[in-house]
Structure formats: C-alpha cells, structure tokens
C-alpha cells in the first residue's frame, strides 16, 4: 500500500479543493493524480461527499481503468482519466467538474472566445468545446470515448495539451489538467472565471472582438515564455 | 406523541437544510415527511424562521390536511403536500421553495429544457412547468388544487413521479420530492442548479439544442438504471 | 437622553441588519425609526461604516429635519425620511439602500412587474418607479423633494403606502418602510429578491405575462387579508 | 530599511483588502503605495498568494521601476504604476484587479455609462475604457505603455485624475487610485459594484438613459463639492 501513498494523498488534497473554490455541488466533480512510473492513478470514489472523504478512500487504478487498490468503486469518469494519462506522459493530474459557467458554455456547444488578457495569461487559443459524440460511441464505452473526444478536438484544432490545459466536452462539462493536482484544480477555477467573464462580455456586446494577436502573445509569453517575468521563479 | 417522533425529527432536519443550501429567504420554503402506515405527515409550522425552529414545532397532519398533533398552524401549503401523499404511496418527503432561478423559470411559464448531462443525471425529460390554474380553482381550495396541478401536468406529459421528482408550478415556484427528506431537499438544490445552468445556456445561445437522446439515456441509466455504476451502492 | 433610547436602539439594530442581508456596500444605506408621539426619529449618521456603529451614534431629528440630539451629522437622506414620517402617521421605520437588482430596475426607469406569487405575497401592484424629478426640484431641496417623489408616485398610481411598502426612485435606488425596523429591512430584502427574480424572468421570456388577478388576490389575502392563514398570528 | 516601513505596511494592508472585498481570484491583483518625497513606492511581489503575504515581502521600487529594496520580483504591472506616480504627484496608491464585471466591460471595449446616483456619488463622467494599444507599443515596453494608455484616455476625454479615480484598460482590466491604499481599494470595490449595476441596467433596458445632468452634479457635489454634506468631515 505504501507505494501509492503519495498519489492518494495528493488526490485527496486535490478533491478537497473543489468545494473550497465553489466548483462543485454535492459530489459532482473528481480529481485524480497519476504516477507514470508505476502506470497508475489515484481517483475519488464515486458518489462520496467531499466532507466525508478520507485519504484511504482514494481508489488506485491502472491506465486501462482496472482497479489496483481500494475498497470503493472509483468515479464513473475513471475511463476518461485513464485514456488521457495513457496518451499524455507529462500530465500528472486531471480534474472534472460541472462548474456553472463552464458547463453553460459546454451546453451551448460554443468555444469560449479569447476576449481578454485574463484568458491570454493562461492560453493563446479559444477554449475548445468538443462536439457531442456519435450514438455508436455513446452506446459503446462512453466514458472511454469521452477521453478520445478530448484528444480529438485538440488534434483537430492543432493545439497541444501542454499549451491548453482545459477543454469543454459539449453538452456535458469541463475537464482540466496539469503537472500537479493543485495546478489542475487551479485550471478549473481559472476556466470557471474566464467562462463567467466571457459570458458577461458577450451579453454586453455581442460583437466584442477577440483579443488582438499582439496582446495574446505578450500576456502568454510574460507568464509562460522563455523570458517570463511573472511570479518568483524563472520559467524555462 | 412518541409515534410521530421519527417523522418530526426528519422533517426538522430537512427544513434546516433549506437555508444551508441557500434555497430560501426568510421563511419561504417548507419540508414535510410522511409516514404512510399511519397516514400522516410532519410539516414546518407557517411563518417560523428556520433558526428558531424546534423539533417539537413540527405539525403532524393527516392526508386530508387535518391537524393530528402540534400547537402551531402548519404551513399554508399543507393541502398541496396532503394531495400528493394521498396519490403517491412511495413518496416520503416533499419540499417547496421559492429558490431564485427555478422560480424565474416558473414565472416565465417555461419548461426547463434538458440541455446537458447534469440534467440527464437526474431525469430524462424537460422539467415541466404546470400552467396557472383557472380562476374557479384559485378561488376554491387553492392549495389543494395546486396538488392536482402537479399531478395533472405529469399525467399530461406522461411522466412518472418516480422518474421526475421536480415540477415548476407556473407563476409560482418549484416543488420537489423523494424517498427521504435528504433526497427531496437534494432535488431542490439540483433543480436550482439546473435552472441556473439552463438560464445561462439560453442566454449564450438561444438555439442551444436539447441533449441528444443517446446521451440522455446513457447518463440516466448509469445513475439510475438496472446496471447503474454511479455511487457506492447497487441500484435496483 | 433617556426618552429617545428605544428608537435609537431599534434604529441601531436595524442598520446592523443591512450588511447581514447583503443589502449594502460600505455605507450605502440607512435605517431610521420614528416616535410619532414625540415627533422625532433616530437615523444613522452619515458615512459611518456599519461595523463601527454604536447606539449612541444614532442622530435624533424632528420631522422638519432639525437635529434634536446627537454629535454626528445625520444621513444626507434625512429630509426624505422626514417628509415621509410627516405624511405617514402609521409608519415607524424607513430604509434606504442601493441594493444591486432593485437599483438596476430604478436605473432602467421601469416598474417591477408582478410576475409571480412571491411578489403577490407582499403587494398586489407592480412596484412603482418614480420618475427623476425636474431640474428645479433637484437644484432646490433635493432630498426633501425625493420624499415628495415617493408620495406623488403612490398618489398617481392610486396605491396606498399601507399596501405598498416599497418604491424605486428612478435613476437612484429603493426606499422601503414598515411598522418596525425589522419589517422595513425585511421589505428591502424582499424587494431585492423580487427584483432579481423579475430580472431573470424578463431575460428568459420578454413576453412573460403579469400574474393573473385571481392569483394576485389569493396570495395577498392569504397573508394580509381578513382571513389570513399564513404565519402564527391572526392578522386583522 | 526603516525609511520604507510606512509604505510597505500600507501596501501590505491594502493588498490584504483585495480578497476581503472579493476583487481577486488567486494572485490576480496588486496594490502599491508611494512616498513622493523619497520618489519610491512599495508594491506586491509577483505571483505570491495574499494569504502567504508578509509586510517584508513588499518590494520598494523607484518611479522608473528600478528595485530599491526587497528580495522578491515585483508585480509584472510595476512599470504601469511607476508611470502613473511619475505623472500624478498627488496620488499615493494605485490598485489593479481583474474583478469580474469591470473586466467584462473592459473586454467589451465599452465605457461604463453613468446610469444612476450610485455612479454620480463617485464621479461625474462615464468610466472611460482606454482602447487596446498599437502592436508596436505592445511589443515594446508593454506595462510602461499601459500607464500612458491610462494617461492618454483621460487627456482625450478631458477628465482629471482627481475627479475620475478609475479607468478600464480595454481588453484587459481596471486600474483605480486614490490618496490612500484604503481609498484606492475602496474605488476598486465601487467600480465593480457600478459595473454590475450598469450591466443589469443595460440588460433590462437597452435604451436606459444616462443620468440627467442636474442629478449628476447634485450627487457629486453633495459628496465632493465645496459645500459637501455627506460623511462626518468637512470636505474642502
């Protein structure tokens, strides 16, 4: 058991952040944390309220979704997480929520346009909304296919998952990811905030323009580029 | 008195959840809990603030609305609860609130369209809005007739109260129900959340499509079907 | 000093409720309480934050706005309160806030239509928005004239201040009143809630109908009529 | 070090107010405080969460943006603050946030119209939105040029920075200022509130008129004019 302690603790801490940042109602969200060396990830058990969660409740699963350790049933979204970890060696945490504004954009089947520098501080592209999948895929292995919806929309838009750490699954809700659980949950909170601002922007001015290219690159580079000067550590 | 202890305690606890989930302002909501064997239910007294409520304040009423036990006047909505319990043997708790977004939909006289999986996790249909009743009915036994408005809209839409545990009463506000007070209040919070997301979805895209049928059934079945795999207990 | 103790205490308690119910930012609201026998009222001092307020800071003023007791300058809205007390012998408390949704309706110069039973539980009419006053009146005794704007809009709409305890002053913000400070503040919170629901209702359906007459009277009468059956006390 | 104690403490206290007033998510905002005699200002370090902030973390910088004291990297917006202090001898504190409603107006590239007295209590003009700068300026010294965008929009609109203590930078977010950190942060909270009310006003009535001139001047003068009668101190 001891070999999974670290990912279980980090997944536990990550899940506890979801209600703290007002990203979930009841049990509607889950955080997982992967150990790529061992080929496993720890994930929230299905349907357990955050306030009753214990580190030992985290379920350890391999990248095919097979349970390796744990007494509870893992999140029903586990196969989606598994697919993404299998394809993304450098992603250590994935978050799924039904946060209100991000979910409204997903239900509207619209990408979130890059309207301002708050958005550009995090990514240079519109946040893509993957279309709902075909009936065949839904009736097959639905949560597994949801992973491929996410992979495919990024491929189609020619956007790397390293640059864009958040996607809307159309008619459903958002997924975000990152190097750590803290970063992946941070991305969920950022997405919800950007989604709300973009909602208000469109209501105020239905022809609000996308942010101009020079500003997109300026803001993204000052935070993430080779010569980044935001924060206290040199980015590389 | 001892024979009503359980329903009074459960009704008390249920009423205390309403302010916790931000579903009520002042005294604008009530929870009841029924004992079908004894043919009675316990309900909040009328106009008493939640923070001053005591278990012993709960009023016990029969399914014709006659007071069986209690020193206070029961909620003015008592006859609505009574009608529903009389018709639904398997419903043990009913909740009425004026929660903001659900009430706005009720005031708009619009069903809440099923726009996403958050909705489909709970029901496969649009959430129906019963039309305001005729003047004759209003001037007669109004709260009693409100119960029939709820029964009739479900009948007309051919939806079972087992599948759909929430209804909007047009120009008025929502009612929800469930097997327990906890579940019935949960449904009120879910409805408010779905109502807000649907509001935002329509504002973003006035032609947002209903969720496709395959997704409606997939999400509902994974939570409520014979082979449900959401949560920790086998559903039957 | 002892003869004003009661109104000062009640005004103090009423002012403390404004931040509790999220009706004010900084110092943007005031509550007064009148003693009609002595012809005076106690009101919040101008520009003092609620958390620094003390009972002894309340300023006692007569119905012509003359300071009777107190070391601080009274609210700049004092002449408006004075005019209303002078005309309404049965009103003991007045509240002014800039609560968000009610103020947005006032800025839109629109009455708040009676869309549902939440509204009808409190009044049978649309909540009137008084038009902005003439330049002459503004440049004269502005706050004094604001009192007449409120009196005049009720007169013009043929609505009694006993039935309608809330008014929007166009381009400005709401005023509410009642028999006690608790009731007058309650009315401010009710107004803000009704204003938000009405906002959402109009956004959802620009042709949402007014509540039908039979429902308006049913809901109002069950709470305020001769045979009222809401709450624990017989209304007269 | 002792000679900067006062501005570091005031800047520290000012930064702590940002989360208190819900003006920031994560680290998205900064407060600075200047000492014009010494030609320096203290500012929040870049990317440090408010709850981990310490007085000693404040970075002291001169009006050309050169670090004078401090172990951390100053806010990336430091050059914007520097430009403004260099031009405004009477401004002692500057605040930058990405507060939700103000940022939505900035993203919409719209001035916030003066719709009501809440707005007029603080300024007599629409709150200006500076246009996004040219590509040359962005690719040059971007944050430095942002300061000039603010100076230029005020010049173009013929508005003094003494009368208007808040500006939207188009596609970006708001800046506010004042005599003290408390006042500058107060202005950020006021701006967010005015921005929300103006948003709701436009949604309710797309042809809501600007506040009439007589009311603009009445409200502004009663708070800020030679004969001001709002608050407890004589304004001069």
Automatic annotation (TrEMBL), chains A, B, C, D:
Catalysed transformations (reactions) = L-ribulose 5-phosphate = D-xylulose 5-phosphate
EC number(s) in its UniProt entry? 5.1.3.4
* Protein name, entry field: L-ribulose-5-phosphate 4-epimerase
| Domain of life of the organism encoding this protein | Bacteria
**Taxonomic source organism:** Apibacter mensalis
Q: Which Gene3D superfamilies match?
A: Class II aldolase/adducin N-terminal domain
Is the keyword Zinc assigned to this protein?
yes
Domain Class II aldolase/adducin N-terminal: from-to ranges: 9-199
Q: Kindly list the cofactors needed.
A: Zn(2+)
SUPFAM superfamilies assigned to the protein according to its UniProt record, in alphabetical order: AraD/HMP-PK domain-like
